[in-house]
Amino acid sequence: MTGNLRSLRLLSLGGVAGVLLAACAGGTTTTTSGSPKSGGSVTVASWQEPDTLLAAGVTDSMTHAYADVGPAMEGLLRAKAVVDVPKNPKISDYWEPQLATNVPTVENGDVKVNGTTMDVTWKLRHGVKWHDGMPFTSKDVKSTFDFWWVKYKDKNPTPVISTSGWDQVSGVDTPDDFTAVVHWKSIFGPYIAFGAGPYGILPDHLLQQVWAKSGDITKEKLSIAIPGGFNGTDTWDKWMVGTGPFMFKEWVTGDHLTLVKNPHWWGSHQPYLDTITVKFEPDTNTQLADLRTNTIDMGLDFRAALLSPLSHLDAVTTTILPDSGAEKIDLNLHNAFLQDKAVRQAILMGIDRQKIVDTLLESKTTVPPDSWLCLGTGGWCQDPSATHTKFDPAAAQTLLTNAGYKVDKDKCGGMRSSPAGAPTNGKCLEVKLVTTSGNALREQQEVVIASDLKLIGVKVTQPFNNPRAGKLFGSYSNGGTLYTHVFDMAMYTNTYSGPAEPDAFYAGYVSSQIPSDANQGQGQNDTFTNDARVDAAFNKGRVAVAQADRKQAYVDAQKALADIIPEIPLYQQLTVIAYNKKLQGFKGNDFFWMNNAEDWYVSS
Length: 604
What we know:
This protein is an alpha+beta fold.
């Protein structure tokens, strides 16, 4: 999540994407001047520091964390940059091999359907070493799948973000060091993303050390020795041992993270840079100031609110990518007022979302349909009859009045429920809104939203009390605001973390994925969505491989979510990354922002 919650993300290639990409300086990749040069360092600013390095999809899901670890941690596949995706792509076309040598599909014979079960064969790269010198083999793939889905099933000692899929993977065979065959208990459509992306594969030799103890990688301290990199003893969430072009050296919390060149990387060329430093900034305005003074070379996740000042920096290239996901407001359905569908409908009608787009985002994006589940997936699973609720404050007020709410401006500053309206029993209609602290655009949005809702009789508590990103998106075990459900309304961005796969949101909507003590805090269903139609649709979408067979399932899910209204989609989010023009080789990727760091170099 950029202030983002991660659940598979997809770039958008048509419509608004074409307009935005054409409008931004440098497009999606820098203009190369001369041959790449080795040496030099780059400082990248990030305004969201994770609480743990495992926030990149293991115990939490922060898009900034994926950027931080991306140059070091690899998976079987990685998401392609925008410019590398072909026209009219299949889901497999969005991926490229990383630790695997090809993308397994039914067409190339590496995915075999056997009645109601399925086998996926992963052919692995030779000559790869982990940063501490141990060889990468099929044992690492097997142990990674064991860690997530086989060894502990749904009772993982590590507070993983979700155990979704544990009842699907039956095991992994390793016929040789460079072949891993994953056995699925049933046909499983989203197989391609399992093991892909940063932290897609974990080192077997380090997992074995943890498994010999408690099994919790966040609690057991290991001694790590990376030649030229980190040397020390700490828990897994404080260091990285990967296979990527850069190696982890240090993390000084509150200040910076340092990655150094991996001289033994397996790629076609050695990384050009010697060092990448991630500098943790308090907010996007500080990033802008530091970019202006050359204190940093790149700023991540600027957001549309800063497009205008960025455009006036002559020495800076700005890349704009429409995300496959939305800035939205999650509604806690256990809140006494928000349990009432009429209140949720009124909030949806009562926020002038187009005004937010026009005034705060320079009309650079669009308002999504009422369910944004398939936003930016190239349209393959979009509901053709999707509803788009319009701004209508008069209708919102009528909804509330018909539901028994009465105007009481003197005592409530808005409306109160009917005295007989259990569970609210005559209380003032007031809710709290939170978002990530330090984000100027979101703070402006809060003011606009509170003003709009006041006009329909819904009071938003002020002053706002916004937690830092690490707290808002923190895991259940760490008391994260979302997953412990200690909010009324929470505004943030949720985007796909990999190509075109709506099953990634299984953990966000299916009822079994509501974090609680009973399930050890696993899952991302922070809204308490509990609907048989949603559960059935996501489960149906899992048991087919062909896209055509899966579309109806996700259309059904969109219809149900649009009816329930567990969230208010505000607009399609944008990824805005700006960097000094001396930095060459960057390719825009809205999934993993530092995805091709091995190609970066500094021109003279």
